[in-house]
């Protein structure tokens, strides 16, 4: 029984290459425990994702209050929401219930959590901070700028992680903008209004990811040209994985855990605006470095493929 659960837990993980230490120590085991329970209850991964959205919104609302014990409740709710965010993917892998809608919902859930948190922090600073009360527009400008940067940080971290998984598992959830656009155009506003609306935003999301990564796109084209059947040269797979692996720690820093640690610290010291500063300075610096490094790696390997370094 225990050995079966250990095997199921291992299979519920995407890859040790892309797992973050805090996730492995806490969120993945908690997510797996929820997944085992929800599988027995017949709960779907999408239902878990929707539940995480409501928990995240509840956490965000409570961040408005300038009272530490209320903020501690909001921290607990946000951690709970993230255990569900871990659970939905693990449950999908355990039950083989994959769907494009599930991937879109999973991506949107974190955006909804943090949109609520940002609004709550702005209202809180305008109400309780003498400095921001005198220029209430300032915190909103900072928050909107940080929110835009947050979206870019999370999108690129996920993009690079998914591409790395292609070299670990031979498959990934990496979507192409052209395919997403074609699917969007196939939907009817009359018959599939909500699905088409969600697909509209997801298509824009994938288009932006590709626009920011020209060398990455060139490498994908070279791979498709050189190995149209998808069977990449094993040496190329090993070489790219080795080059890409050191960047995975940066994709993890740009994701949930270190972001929320900064958020929680800012709440404990009673200065929530510090979290925005952390996003704008520290995380943007990591994003720029990660993107420049990954683009350099992609240019290098695209040249090698083009010169037939890995054979015809």
In short:
With 312 residues, this protein is mainly alpha-helical. The chain has helices spanning 2-12, 21-41, 45-62, 68-95, 100-128, 130-134, 136-169, 177-186, 193-211, 214-226, 234-244, 248-253, 256-268, 273-306.
Structure report:
- The chain is mainly alpha-helical and 312 residues long.
- The chain is 81% helix and 0% strand.
- Helix 10 packs parallel to helix 14 (273-306).
- The chain is globular, with a radius of gyration of 21 Å.
The beta-strand count equals 0
| Poorly predicted spans | none
Given the C-alpha coordinates, what overall shape results? globular
Ends apart, CA distance between termini: 48 Å
SS strand fraction: under 5%
Given helix and strand content, the structural type is mainly alpha
Radius of gyration: 21 Å
The largest β sheet comes out as: none
């Amino acid at each position: 029984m225990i050995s079966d659960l250990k095997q199921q837990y291992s299979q519920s993980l995407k890859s040790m290459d892309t797992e973050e230490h805090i996730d492995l120590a806490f969120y993945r085991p908690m997510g797996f425990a929820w997944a085992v329970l929800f599988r027995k209850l017949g709960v779907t991964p999408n239902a878990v994702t929707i539940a995480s959205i409501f928990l995240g919104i509840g956490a965000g609302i409570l961040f408005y209050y300038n009272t530490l014990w209320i903020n501690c409740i909001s921290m607990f709710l946000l951690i709970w929401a993230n255990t569900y965010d871990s659970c939905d993917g693990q449950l999908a892998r355990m039950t083989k219930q994959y769907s494009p809608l599930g991937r879109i919902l999973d991506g949107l859930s974190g955006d909804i959590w943090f949109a609520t948190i940002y609004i709550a922090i702005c209202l809180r600073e305008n109400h309780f901070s003498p400095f921001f009360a005198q220029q209430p527009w300032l915190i909103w400008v900072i928050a909107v700028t940080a929110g835009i940067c947050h979206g870019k940080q999370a999108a690129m971290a996920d993009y690079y992680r998914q591409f790395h998984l292609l070299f670990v598992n031979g498959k990934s959830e990496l979507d192409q903008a052209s395919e997403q656009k074609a699917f969007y155009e196939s939907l009817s506003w009359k018959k599939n209004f909500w699905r088409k609306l969600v697909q509209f935003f997801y298509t824009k999301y994938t288009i932006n990811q590709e626009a920011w990564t020209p060398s990455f796109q060139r490498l994908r084209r070279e791979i498709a040209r050189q190995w149209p059947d998808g069977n990449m040269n094993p040496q190329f797979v090993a070489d790219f994985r080795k080059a890409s692996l050191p960047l995975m720690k940066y994709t993890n820093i740009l994701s949930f855990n270190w972001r929320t640690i900064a958020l929680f610290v800012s709440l404990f010291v009673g200065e929530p605006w510090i979290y925005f500063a952390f996003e704008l300075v520290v995380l943007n610096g990591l994003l720029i470095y990660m993107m420049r490094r990954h683009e350099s790696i992609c240019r290098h390997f695209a040249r090698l493929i083009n010169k037939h370094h890995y054979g015809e």
